Amino acid sequence: MDRLWAPWRIKYIKTSTRDSQTLAKKCIFCLAAKKAKKNYVVLKTKHSIALLNIFPYNNGHLMVAPARHIKDISLLKEEEALDLFRALNSAKKLLDKTLKPQGYNIGANISEVAGAGIAGHLHIHLVPRWKGDTNFMPVLTNTKILSQSLEELYRQLKNA
User: Fold this and answer.
1) Which of 17, 25, 96, 102 is deepest in the core (most CB within 10 A)?
2) Domains in the chain, ordered, with CATH?
3) What is the predicted pLDDT for the residue at 4?
């Protein structure tokens, strides 16, 4: 396998190996709820936020999370659950308007065992998809190409 130099990932790697108490203090979703612009928050409601994933699977990959630091769907209050899914729908409409994807992958990984990179704070991934958005690069070189910078996409979504 070829190597792609990505020094910006070391911060993520070091953060993910810390204990859960330290992670709660530096939770990306809690920080984003407080400092929206610095953390690529494109949508904020009374109980939820939607932000760009800085390690996206595809262009426009958003994460929608409750503003309150909770780790499981069962811990959501009724008004938080409704607000979370309304925020998810609003985020999808925002992507529909700006990027015009042909489909979506939507899902939540609940717990580290299920693949959650940030297991302490519930979040839903919203990944836009287009026919042909996969090509030979991931198959032959294990490399994904993203065609738009986070800054450009953030401006585009905020202006929509």
Assistant:
1) 96
2) 7-159 (3.30.428.10)
3) 61
